[in-house]
Structure formats: C-alpha cells, structure tokens
Design a protein that fits this description.
It is a single chain. The chain is of the alpha/beta class and about 350 residues long. The chain has 3 domains: about 130 residues, Rossmann fold (3-Layer(aba) Sandwich), CATH 3.40.50; about 110 residues, P-loop containing nucleotide triphosphate hydrolases (Rossmann fold, 3-Layer(aba) Sandwich), CATH 3.40.50; about 70 residues, CBS-domain. About 40% of the residues lie in helices and about 20% in strands. The protein contains 16 helices and 13 strands. The strands form 3 sheets. Strands 6-7-8-3-9-10 form a 6-stranded mixed beta sheet, with helices on both faces. Strands 2-1-4-5 form a 4-stranded antiparallel beta sheet, with helices on both faces. A 3-stranded mixed beta sheet has the order 11-12-13. It is globular, with a radius of gyration of 24 Å.
Amino acid sequence: MKADAKPVVRCRDVWKIFGPNPAEAMEALKRDNLARAEVLERFHAIAGVAGVSFDVYPGEILCIMGLSGSGKSTLIRHVNRLVEPTAGQVFIGDQDIGAVSQKELRRLRAEKISMVFQNTGLFSHWNVRDNVAFGLEVRKIKRAERLAIAQEKLELVHLGQWADRYPSELSGGMQQRVGLARALATDPELILMDEPFSALDPLIRRQLQDEFLRIWKTLNKTALFITHDLDEAIRIGDRIAIMKEGRFVQIGTPEEIVTNPKDDYVRDFVHGISKLKFIRAHSLMCGIDQYRGTHGRRGANLERYSSVTENTDLDSLIKLKVNASNYDPIVVVDSASSPIGVITVTDLLNGMRS
C-alpha cells in the first residue's frame, strides 16, 4: 500500500438505525453514548451501524470481525448500497454512492464491485462456466468473450475441468470457489466477501484461505472481508477492524491488534493467541548507531551476521537463533538489503515476555 495512494473505499460517519424513529435514536446515541439495549428500550430501535469511518486502499484486504449481531454484514452492505444509511457517506473512488442514480448504481455494481456470500447463490440450472460468466452477461459482453473469461477465472481457482458441470455436482468448497471466480470475472476494483468460508469444514476452509491468498497475491485486488473468526482475520487481513454493537472498537494490523489490544473487549478476543507470529523484527530492533554505540567493535562489521527482513516474525527469529547456537546479533535489512537495525538475544527475550 503506497503512502500517497487514493482509497478505493471511504466510509464517513456511517449510521444505520432500524426502527420507527431512526433520526431521534441516532441523535440520542451521539449525545448520550447509549448502549444497544438502552436504544432498544427507549426508542424500540436497533443501532446496526453507529458512526463508522474507515478507508480501504488499493490491494488491501481489510477484515471486519466481531460476534454475531455486531453489525459486520449490515456495514458491508452499505458499501454497494444494498442498505441505505440513516446518515453518513460511502465513496467508491471519488463517487458518493448515496448521491448516484439507480442507473449509475447498477453500473457501479456491475463494473466496480463484486460480492461473495456465505451462500454462493449459484443458478442450479446453469453449468459452472455460465454461472461464472453471469456478471459479464449483465454487462452485455458477447457470449464467446464472456465464456473465455469465465474459463480463465475457473482455471485460476483450479476448476477448469469442471466448467461443464452443474452446481449440484460440486462440493461446498468447490461451489465457493465458483463464487469467487464469478466475482473476479468482471475484473472489479473491490470485492466484498461476507463470511464466504464460514460454513465449510475446518480443513476445506483453510485450503480456501490459502487459495484466496494465492489469488490475491497474483491479482492485487482490494477486498472487504467479513468474518467472526479471529484466526481467519489474522491470516488473511492486512488490517483488522473489530466491531461491537455497530461501532469499530479497534482497527489496525494483526500485529497491533494482538500485541496492543485497545480495551478488555479486544483483549478477550486475542486471549490465547500466540504473539510469536505477530511480533515483527522492526518492533524488536534497535538502530544501527545505537547498537554500535553500546557494542563498540562488535558493531563494526555487521555483514558477517545473519540478516532478516523487517517483517520477519518473532517465531522465525527464535528458530534462527536456536539453529545458529550462538549469541551473535541478527541484522535487520530493508528491501535493498541495507542494514536498518540490530536484534540481540536480549531483544528476543524481551519480545517473548511482552
């Protein structure tokens, strides 16, 4: 993600109140910071989304997670305007989707946004290839071209040989891969994924997570990924947003969420998660000058020591040091292989205690 990149999605103070007097309930929520139960009691209303703001950048996967009823699915449906907000704005690129006509909204959905649900919604009477080509048919792409694109996307998800089969002949995991291929066929800027793997067996689920990450690394797409599984969010997300009662409690990288939870609610979520995979070299190292200032001649020839990138996790650093069987420092290098920091055995021990 480039520092100067323009967001693909911008949500600004989005609210969704379900009930008879949404504006009144929203103002009370803003003024008094009411809990969801209080809103229900006083206004007979539910705060599905309460003042949420965030950006998603090109190539980023933002995972939104929380317990059932926290507002995840309601929020994601604002992004393609399947749900109209009580207040707030959602931008796709520079377009405020709340301000566009129904005709323009249909164009946006057809060309820029795709969605993958837990229930894939495949047409049972169409073969797999025709299902994948559906979005292109809506855009009136010629049949030969759309079927060629559909076949290409099926090959991408390793289902090329199943193109002429029907959904009933596929397993649940295979159907979900067809749904992913269909979402990719229109070459959208953004893909919305609402718990796409949650109904699958654990082994199949992990395989599809691997498949998803492989494809994203190849295509560099942008995604909003809804899940109630922290392990899945950590594995897939570049950043994670944790929701409670319609609000974002914390948003950050997996490392930030696991190692620095904002409050007890987040702390309970990450309790029991090993930090060894989330503490990175860049958060453990000291600067080159600092190391040389305290270690004298030992810091003069850093090229003789083992080196790692700044995103190497603590687990890998420990294994490297155990295998080396010495107390030499580890040098941290940047993308050009230039030293930017040093990690000592003491730094590793402090990281394990944190």
